[in-house]
Amino acid sequence: MGALKQANPATTLDDAMSGSQTAGPSSENDEEGASYEELALDPDSAGYIQLSHSQTTYVGGGHWMSILRNIPELADVFGSDFRLLDKDADMSAEGEDDELDLMGYHERVDRQHILNALPPKDFADSLVAVCFTNTNNEAMIVHPPTFRKEYERFWADPTSTPIIWVGLLFALMCLAVQYQQYSPEEARRLQVIESDPENLVRLYRTRTIQCLILGKYSNAPPYAVETILLYLLMETLGRQSTQNLDGPLIQWGNLVRIAFKAGYHRDGSNFPGISCFQAERRRRVWAILVGWDLYLSMQFALPSMINLSLCDTKEPRNLGDEDLYEHMVELPPPRANSAHTLPQFHVAKNQLLEIFGRINDLTTSVKSSPSYTEILKLDATLTNTYESIISVWQPQHQPQDSMSTSSRAAPFISVAYTFLAFSYYRARIALHRKYIAPGRKHKQFTYSRKVGIEAALTILQHQWVLYLETRVGGQLCRHGWKFLVLLIQDFLYATAILCAELAEEISPTDLGWAPASEDVGNASNQMRDRVFHALSSAYIVWLQSKESESSREVKLVVASLKHLLSRAQEAGVGQTTMIAPTAPAVLPKPSADAYAVESGSTLAGQAPSLSASAAATPQSDGIYWGIGHFPI
């Protein structure tokens, strides 16, 4: 999707925040002279509470489901199809398996019963190797050099090893089997040893839970936080539908409390009994915990569970695993930014997610509404932070065959870059969401409208590219659709935002609005058609996904898209020929401006300038080197 050229420069952020405006489209409904604070916006809905015989679920007003429910055009979809989906949910909940989970019924077993489930050492060796070779989360949670020493001691004397550590081993082996199932080649090798890999997943998952229970994990003994964290990671990867993440989300609250009980929120340097090595390991684990907390609150539009004002744990230092060892006296100086270590990435990720957390708190507050000046200030903070960290993770050009061992560093960088970019675009949508619709008629909010729509279009563009690349013959086909489980919420959110925009375009109440000039009208029509084509592509993706039959949320999205796209076609939307995305998915820097007008006049109320020099076209760098390398 190329960007249209912008002839005249947009206003600066300072201009926008001071209230100065440029000439551009307006309407009779525009409130002349109205300041940002004088124009009252409709507050967010309270969300909704879904009651059924089997469950009660609250969904916040900023969640994608609430956004769809508030679209008048979809009233029929939610009035009929949604009732059927509720019945399906009740039936599926009643039919769910009764496997063990960390909070449910369990059969008490002894240590020997657990140890009897261990595979032969050579098979365990291969699984541990797979886990540390194909992932990066575990290397932050478990220091690999130290783990290998503990691992050899365990096999020398299994009966003297803490039972929680045994659970950690089972968790790593379970994750390794899950990772292998995402690759057809690795899955075939696994099936030579085990004809039913899912049986191994169930067995190792069960033993992990039993180890935690036998070790009284709620007392926060050594290895408990790390083992529970690995357990929740395996639970997340093992879920296929969006709603099934509710279980891990609830158990996440328990983990946060246990981490507080163990003092992970206080820096180890405060306590003489904690060595510098132990303190640094705790910082790494805490960085993962904070990142997950911010990420989950963002995805589910719920408050975060960690109050960072009560925490003083330092950021982990930019060091490699080989820089740390048990009996070290002091930490070495951090490496250069070009080292691209795991701690360096997680620090950058958390800096971005922390601002997203502030955005979430500001825009979802039920006590007060933020001023538009606050919105613009936070937008500047978000963008400045993103630009300060993203250049370090800018992928360099790599050959197409970047999955080879010799080029592993490059795919990791590409994955890191992609996740940071997705987080940035998602955060911008959340920040400007309430001003997207008002920006249609009130020129002071044009900037927010542009930013929000462009960010959503960019996310869906990459959904389409990833869909193509994960199909048979695609560059990422060995990972499959299920690989994208942690991006589904981003795709759903962007879909809902653009559904609301398309519904506004085809709404009879919008027909009274007229553009200020022919050029502006053409730009508006082109944007409308871009939204239509993006949603058409999303419809194909959701319809073809494996979750279209198993996930009630995806069923609802498919029904909503079908209804809106049909109405839009009847209204003559989508006549502009669009060029399909052509490059695989490494997200561009946030400089695309396909909403600008190819004429001598700029759009009204533009705030921070958006350069048209870099279109929102993905670059090919062979991203996604194994599902385990996804950073959350």
Automatic annotation (TrEMBL):
Ranges where the record places region Disordered: 1-35
Amino acid composition bias (Polar residues), ranges on this chain: 18-27
Keyword Nucleotide-binding attached: no
GO BP, one annotated term: DNA-templated transcription
Superkingdom assignment: Eukaryota
Keywords: DNA-binding, Metal-binding, Nucleus, Transcription, Transcription regulation, Zinc
SMART domains: Fungal_trans
Single GO term (MF): zinc ion binding
Cellular compartments per GO CC: nucleus
Signal peptide: none
Keyword Transit peptide included in the entry's annotation: no
Residue stretches making up the Xylanolytic transcriptional activator regulatory domain: 251-322
Protein name: Xylanolytic transcriptional activator regulatory domain-containing protein
